Amino acid sequence: MTTVNENAEVSVDEAIEKVQAKAGGEKTSYDAQFRVWRGDAEGGELVDYTVEVNEGEVVLDIIHRLQATQVGDLAVRWNCKAGKCGSCSAEINGRPRLLCMTRMSTFTQNETITVTPLRTFPVMKDLVTDVSFNYKKAQEVPSFAPPEGLAPGEYRMAQVDVERSQEFRKCIECFLCQDVCHVIRDHEDNKESFSGPRFLMRVAELDMHPLDALDRQHAAQEEHGLGMCNITKCCTEVCPEHIKITDNALIPLKERVVDRKYDPLVWLGNKILRRAN
Ligand code: SF4
Ligand code: SF4
Ligand code: FES
Hints:
Layout: H1 12-24, E1 30-40, E2 43-53, H2 59-69, E3 89-92, E4 95-98, E5 112-116, E6 123-125, E7 128-129, H3 132-139, H4 159-166, H5 176-180, H6 182-185, H7 197-208, H8 216-222, H9 234-238, H10 245-262, H11 264-276
The structure holds iron/sulfur cluster (SF4) (2 copies) and FE2/S2 (inorganic) cluster.
């Protein structure tokens, strides 16, 4: 084992720098170029900053350093700094990401890092957006409705059904998938009729629940705009919880809706029921 003492010709810092230089030519601390969007609902612009970066830091650390040293009124939303609260969502170099889970080592030391607010939702100030669209859509999905005659404690379901929905339960409601989905990102007027991947996934989860008594498939198509999703999978690509939103929730839900629509027995049953009403 090698030790470094006061009499050594190289200091500890110099030794670390030399080892790192050998490993990849990157320094422990350096000044990074940041371009951060500043403004409010009325408008704004990208502003350039030079800010110190230390080893092991994430983009949120740098935004906090900017606040502490240069722009005290820079607005950013965050809570846990652990990838669990879903509140620090923003766009880094144009890609929706969590500020607290994006390591500075992802970027080269001489690249300019651009941080902008989520594009799909209205800006409140700087990096903070108004995400209330998502809470409104959440309210439009009725919660689990158990079958009549069963009291809590009497619900029974197979383990395989429990496990299927566990993946969807990892959602931290960061709304990065909602932000990236082109159906609402590029078309403001679709917001009324499209709930977005996060809430279509919730509908799919409830539709897969063997004890849920509501007609989720009809609601998915008629109220939440399932048909507008053209399975581009962009939502899956940005999900920090690595939930396979498209493959495991949206596509199976689409398949069930189509099966029902084109199954002659179901079609006949619906027709008879409608006549009876
Ligand atoms: S797969 Fe569907 S919900 Fe996901 S981003 Fe594409 S269009 Fe939107
Ligand atoms: S599904 Fe993934 S990307 Fe979408 S809100 Fe949940 S955690 Fe975020
Ligand atoms: S601060 Fe909680 S997810 Fe980033």
